[in-house]
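User: I want to check something. If I give you two sequences, will you return the structure for each one separately, not as a complex?

Assistant: Yes, each is folded on its own. Here is the first sequence with its structure:
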Amino acid sequence: MSLINSNHSQSALSDADDGVISGTFKHYEIRAKLSSTLSTQVFEAWDTQLHRLVAIKQIKQSHSIAQAQETLIKEARLAASLKHAAFVKIHALEEAQDSLFIVMELVTGVRFSDWIKEHHGKDRLILGIVLQLASAMQEAHAAGLIHGDIKPSNLIVDGSGKVRILNFGLVSQHEIHPSDVPDLSDPHNSIPYMAAERFANSKATAAGDVFALGIIWYEMLNGALPFAELHGLALVAAQVQTKSEQWPWSKSILDGQKKIILSMTDRDAGKRIGSAQVVTEIKSLTANDPLSNSSASLDLAVLREQIAKKNQQRRRNLVVMFALLFSLCGIAAWQSKPYWPQIAKAIKPYSESREMEQGIALLTQHMYRPDLSKLDAASEHFMNVLERTPEHAAAVAYMSIVYISRYHAEKRDEIWLQKSKASAQQAMKLNPNLAISLVADAKILHWHHKLDLALEAADKALVLEPKNLFAWHTKMSSLFESNRYGEAIAWAEQGAKIFPEDRFLLDMKGGTHLAQHDYKLAETALRMSLTRQPDSANGYALLAQAIELQGRTQEALQVIQQGLQVRPNAYLYATLGNIKFKQQDFAAAAAAFGNAASPERGVTGSYFRWFELAEALMWVPGREKEGIAAYEKAKKLLEIRLNRSPDDEVLLVEMSMILARLGDFSQAKVLALQALKIAPNHPDRLFFAGLTFELIGERERALDAILKAKKLGFSLQRIETHPILKGLRSDSRFK
C-alpha cells in the first residue's frame, strides 16, 4: 500500500491494520496511518466509488463494550448532525471487531500553529477566528458534545480561510485524560491548554473547552503561551497554581478582548463564562455603532424619554399624520412601479468615465478569477454608457469581450459568440486605432483560427497599451495554437511578472510544456498558478494531466478530487474520464465524460465533450447506441465550428473520426488526409488520423500515422492502451 503526500503526519501501515480496515470497508483503499493513540487510530483512505479522500477513525474498546459502543455511536450521531462549517463532515459509521469506525471528511490546510506564527497580534483577524470557534462550540455544547482536547494541533485553517475543528464528538469523554498525553516534555501537546480541574482526574467539560479556547486566543494575541518556557511537571504546576490575571500580558492587547479571555480562563470552572456568552461578548466588541454604549448615548436616551413623556399627545398626532402620508406615498409608489428602474437611473448621478472605470475593473477581476456576477456587473456599466452614447467605441469593444466571456462561461451558446463578433466589427468601424477595439478584433480572429491576423491585431493593441491584460491573454492563446511554443513560454513568463494576480498565463505556460512533453516543467508552472488562485478548476485539471503523464496516476486522481471539492468543472471531469479510459475502465470514463457534457456540471454546448463521451460509450457493452447518439450530437456541434474555420486541422481530424464512427468512411478519409496535409508533423493530429484510418480499414495509413506520431514524441501509453489500436498493435509491422 503506497503512501501519498499529505499535510497530515503519516506512519507506515502494518499488515494487521490494513487487513482490519480493508476487511470492514470493501471500497476504500487505505493509504496511510495518520495518527495513533492507545484507544484510537486514524487512517487516510481513497473512496473508490465516489473518488474522494476520506479519513477513517477506528475507536477501540477496552472496557464494557456494549455500553461504550452505545455511547460512542450516540456521540458520533450527534457530531454528524452539527451544522457549523468548522465541524468535520461525517460520511458513515461502521461497527466491527469490537471497534467503531467513523468515515469522515479528510480536512487539509494550514496547521493552526503555523497560522498563529504568521498572524499573531492581528486583532481583527484573530477576533473573527475566535468567533468561528466559539460559535461552533456553542452549537456542540448545546447538543451535549464536549471536545476535551482543544489545541492548535486539532485545528486547521482550510483553503477558504475557515478554521476547522478535528475530532469534535468523535472521542468519548472517558477517553480524554491527562494520562493519555504521550510526552509531558513537549510544550505543544495538550497540557498547556488544559484547565486546572483536568489534572484532578475530572472528566472533560464544556468549561474546559472554553478554557482551552481562551488559552488559544491568548496565544494568538501574544504570539506565545502563558508559560512557554516551562515543560513537564513544572508546566502542570504553573497551570494549577496561577490565575490568568498573573500571566504576562502584552500592552497591545485591547481591554475588551483581555476581559473576555480572563472570564474564559478563570481558575474556578464554575465562574467561567460559557461558549454562548463568549459569542455574545465577541459580537458586542464588533458592534457596528461604536457609540452605542457611551455615556453620551445613555444620557441622550434618558433625555428623549423625558421629552416623550411630556409630549405624548403630540407624538400621537405626529404618528397619525405620518401614517397618512406614508399611505399616500405607498399608493404613488405602487402606481409608478413599472418605471422604478428608469427612475433610479434618472436620480443616480452619471459619469461616463466612472462607468467605464468600474466596468473595466470588474471585467479584469473576472479575468483574474472567473465570476459571472462580476461579468454581469461589468456589462451593466458598459451598457449605461451605450444607452447615452451608442457610438462609444471602447464600450462597444468591451461588450464584445463580455459576450465572448459569456460564451466560454455559459455552455457555448452560439448567440453570445455572434454578439461578440458583431460588437467587435462595430468597434473597429467606430475606432480601429483604439487598443481595446483591436483586442476585440483579435479575439474574434483567434476564434476563427486566423492566428496570424489575431497576433497582428494583438501586437498593434500592445503598442498602444503595453499592459493591456486582455491583449496579453489573446496573444498567448494565439502563440500556443500556432505551435510557437518557445515564444509562448517566454511571453507567459514575462506576463506573469507584470500581472502578479493573473493565473491564465501560467496555465497556458503549463499547457505549452504539456504540448512539448515537458511534464515536470508543466507541473511547476501549474503549481505556481494554483498558488495564485487556489480555487481554479482548470488549474487542478491541467496539473492532474501533468502528474498523470509522469506515471503518478493515483496522485493525479487525488488532485482531480481536490479540484472537484473546490468547484465541479467540465475540464476536471474530462481529465478524470481520460485517466479512466486509459485504465480501460470505460464505464467510469463514460460517467465522468457524461458529467463533463451535462448542463448541470459541464459544458453541454462543447462538441469535444460529446466526442469523448461517445468514444467511451462505444466500449461499454450494451451502450453502443448511446455512443452513436453522442457522436451525432458532437457532429452537429462541430459542423458549426468547421463552417467558421474550414481549414482548422484540429477540427478536421476530429470530424474525420466522428464520421468514421458514424459509417461515412469515404468522407472520413478525405478529412483525415486534409488535416495531415495542413499539419503533417504534428503528433496529436497524426494519432487521431491513425485512429480514423484504423476504423475505416486503412491499416497501412494507420500504421504510418501512428508510428510517425510515436517517433515525434506522442504518448506511448496512449498508443499502447487505446482499444481502437488493439488489432494494429498485434500487427508485425507495428512491432
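And separately, the second sequence with its own structure:
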Amino acid sequence: RESRLHRQMGARGGAGAGRDEGSFHRGVRRGDPRNADSLLGLGALCLDTGRAGEAETLFRALASVRPGPDCSYHLGLALTALERAEAEAAYRQALVFRPDFPEALCNLGAGLNAQGRLEEAGRIYRRVLTVRPDHAEALSNLALIRQGQGMIDRGVAALCRALAVQPGNPDILHNLALALDRQRRPDEAAAAARRAVAVQPFHAEALSTLGTLLRELDRLPSSILAQRNAIILRPAWAEALNNLGNSLHDQGRLDEAVTAYDRAVASRPDFTNAHWNRALSRLLGGDFSRGWDDYEWRLRQEGNQAPGGPFPQPLWRGEEPVRGTLLVHTEQGFGDTIQFIRYVPAAVARGWRVVVEAPRPLLRLLGSLPVPEGRVTLVAKGEPLPPFDAHCPLLSLPRAFRTEFGTIPAPIPYLKAEPDRVEAWARRLPPRTVGADGPGGLRVGIVWQGNPQAAVDRGRSVPLAEFAPLARIPGLRLVSLQKNHGLEQLDRLPEGMAVTVLGPGFDDGPHAFRDTAAVMMGLDLIVTTDTAVAHLAGALGRPVWLALKAVPDWRWLMGREDCPWYPTMRLFRQTRPGDWRPVVARMAGELFQIMMAKAMRTTDILVETAPGELLDKISILEIKRERIQDPVKRRNVETEHGILTRTADRHIPSTAELRELAAALKAVNTALWEIEDAIRDCERAQDFGPRFIELARAVYRTNDRRAAIKRQINERLGSALFEEKSYAAY
C-alpha cells in the first residue's frame, strides 16, 4: 500500500557558473561564439538553474568545437535531466575518451539501474570502485543494485561504507533507511531517515519514508506530520499523498484518507495503489457503491493489465441477459474465498452455469454449496478449464451484483460440514460436564494467530495468553482450532489456563477445514481473531465472536457489533490500538453471564432470603476468592459469587450506609475465618489451654457482632425476614 523511492545518486562533475561568471561567458561568446570554455561554463550554469534544454544545445555546440570527456559527460547530464534515452550513449562516449571517468561511470550505472538492467549496472559500479574505492555515489548505487537482486545484507554493508565516506549525505541515509526497513529493522530505519531529514530538512523523499516507517511503528500522529511536511514540499506528489492516506486510514480518519487518495489520483490518474487504497477506506466506511468500483484496481495491482483480465472471453460485470457458462476464478486468501463464494448460488439463480476455479484444498468444502445438481463445476487451480462464455474474478461479484448492505446474499448457512466427520469428532470432543464443574458447561473453540508473514496480520493476531480470563470461567472448556502458526504458545500458558488440543489427526489431510468445520458443529461458540476460521464459522452459521483491532479490515466496517455478512457473528473491537485486554474482558464478562444463566436454569431450588443473609454470604465468598488457591474450588466460588452478586445488584440499593455495613460484615467474617484457622492450629498441636479457651469464646462473641450487623441491614431495608437467635443465659 505504501509508495517508497530509492534515490539513485548521479555524480556531477565540473564547476557550475555563478551569475557573474555567466555574464563573463556571454561576453566572451559574443566576441568568440565558438569559445569552448564559455560553452562549457554557460552549459553548466543552465544545468544548475534547471534549463536542461539550453544546456543540451550548448554542449552539442561544444562537441563540434572541443569534443572530449567533459563535453560528453555534461551532455549526458543534460539528457538525463530531460529523461532522454540518448544519455546512455553520451556517458559511454565520455568513457571512450576517459575509461576511468568515475562520474560518467556512476551516472551510466544509474541509468542502467533505472532501466532494470541490474547486472550491467552492477558491473559499472564495480568499475568505479576499482578506480576510486571510496566513491560514495557508486557504493550507494551498488547497494541499490544488491537490494534489487535480493542481497539485502550486502546492500546495507555497501551503504554503511558509503556513509563512512560521506557521513552527512542525506541521500545515502535515506537509502539506508529503506534498506534497514527491508531487513525488518524499523526502529533503526526510522533513525536513519530522521538523520537524513536533520541534515536536509527539505528532503521530501526522506520525509515521506520517515512517515511510512513511523506508520509501521504505530506512531501515527508523527507519521501523518512527516507525510504532510513532504507534501508541503511537493504538493502534487502522488506517492506521499497515498502514504498520507494510509496513515489517516489507520487512525480511522476515513474521510480524510479518501481526500488524500483523491488528490493522489488527481495527480496521477493511473496510480493503482491510490485507487486500491481508496477502495479499502470507502468500503470500511460503508460506501459500497463507489468502493466496489475502486476495488477493481486490485487486478491491475496484481499485474493483470488487460481490461478483460487473463482470459479472451468477456468479463461479466452484471449485464443481462445471462447466457451460457460463467467462470468464477478465486483470488486472494482462503477467507476471501469462503466469504464471497456465497455469490455462486446467486449467479446460478441468474441463469448461469458456473465453473469455479479454486485452490484444491478448498474444493471439498465448496462442494457443499446449496446449488442444483449439475449447475456448478469445481476445478482446482492449474487444472484444464472446461469451455465457458464469460468470466468474473470472485471478488468482482459484489460489484457485478451491485451489492449494498440490504442486498448481501446471506442464506446462512451456505456451507456445510460432512455429517460423518461431525459424528466422528463429536465422540472426541471433551465433555461439557466434568467433575466439579457442574451441569451446563460450554465448549468454546479458539483461534488466536494468523499468518505472521502476511502484511495484513499486523495488529490483528492476539497472544493466546490474553484469553486466559475465558479459561477461568467455571464450566467453560477452550478447544484449540489453531493450525500451523502460533501452536508454540500452547507450551507456555499462564497458570490455571487449559486449552484442549485435538491431536495430530486434526485437518492433516489434503482438504482444508474439513475437520475444523466438523468440530465447529459440536462447539457452542467460536472465539477467533480475523482469520479464515471466522469466515468458515460464519458460513456454517455457527455462533462466532470475532476480536478486531481498532481499525480492522474493510469487511468488518466501523463501529458496529453485528456483521451484515454473517448474521451469527458478533464483533468485539479494540477501543485502544494494540490493547486486547478490554476486548477479552468484555468477552469473559458476557460468557460468564451466559454460564450463570445456564447454571440458574439447571437449579430447581429458588428461596427468598433476608438481605442481611445475602450480603453475609457474598462477603464470605469474597474472602474465599481472596484466600482459596485451588483452581477448581476457586471456579466454584466465583460461580456462586457471580450469581449472588447479580441478585444483590438487582434487589439491594447501593447506598453509602449499606456499603459501610457490608464492609463491617466482611471484617467480622474475616475475623471469624482467622479465629477458625487458629482453633485448627490448636487442634493440630493438641493445645487446649488458655489460648484455645480464649479462641472458643471469641467465636460466639464475633458471631454476636455478625448477627447484629445483619439485623441492622434487614431493618434499614424493611425486610420481612429476620434472623432470630436464642441462647441459655450466661
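Because they were folded independently, the notes below concern the second chain alone. DSSP finds 31 helices and ten strands in the chain. The domain at 419-599 is CATH 3.40.50.2000 (Rossmann fold).
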